[in-house]
Amino acid sequence: MTSLNTIVRASIAAVNKKSLDGRDVVDRMPDAADVQLGSGAGYGKADIAFKDKRTLSASTSENIDLAGSLSDAFGQTITAAKVKAILIENPEASTSNLSVGGAASNTFVGPFADATDTIVLKPGDRFVAVSRTGWTVTAGTGDILEVANGAGGSVDYDIELIMASA
What are phi and psi of 37, to 5 degrees? Predict the structure, then answer.
């Protein structure tokens, strides 16, 4: 039996400082709290982890099937019912933009407003989204997350998914 405990860190911390009349005025924006997901299925829980470095040639795309074609670190086929967290990173050294979302059919809508929405990741960009409730994956009709590469060159991007089987 496996267990999965997850911490998602997606926050911004900043210190804005200005010198005025011989003293510094400081405005601090503290980190947001981590999102913790326990092991299992249901609200605030996850039991599937997927991580990969994937390569896309220039002007190509791939459909990531969240229900039945990916394998986890233990060689088990992944069949997700909910996606709890997504991280996709286009490396700094990339020469292309990546587009995430908007598959032609069987689109996983997830955090997007509708099936045609996409997010563009320029070189060095990272997209992180988390939901304690999770976004529904529907096998055969709503399980494809598309990642498309622009025309700039081949890209080795990182993807991490935390999911629940029910």
Answer: -120, 125
Q: What is the pLDDT of residues 111-155, one digit of tens each?
A: 999 999 999 999 999 999 999 999 999 999 999 999 999 998 999
Which residue has tokens 């999965």? 4
> What is the C-alpha end-to-end distance of the chain, expressed in Å?
16
Burial of 161 (0-12, 13-18, 19+ CB in 10 A): buried
Q: What is the 3-state secondary structure (H, E, C) of the chain?
A: CCCCCEEECCCCCEEEEEEECCEEEEEEECCCCCEEEEECCCCCEECEEEEEEEEECCCCEEEEECEEEEECCCCCEEECCEEEEEEEECCCCCCCCEEECCCCCCECCCCCCCCCCCEEECCCCEEEEEEEEEEECECCCECEEEEEECCCCCEEEEEEEEEECC
What's the rounded Cα separation, in Å, for the pair 57 and 125?
A: 18
pLDDT in tens, 71-96: 999 999 999 999 999 999 999 999 99
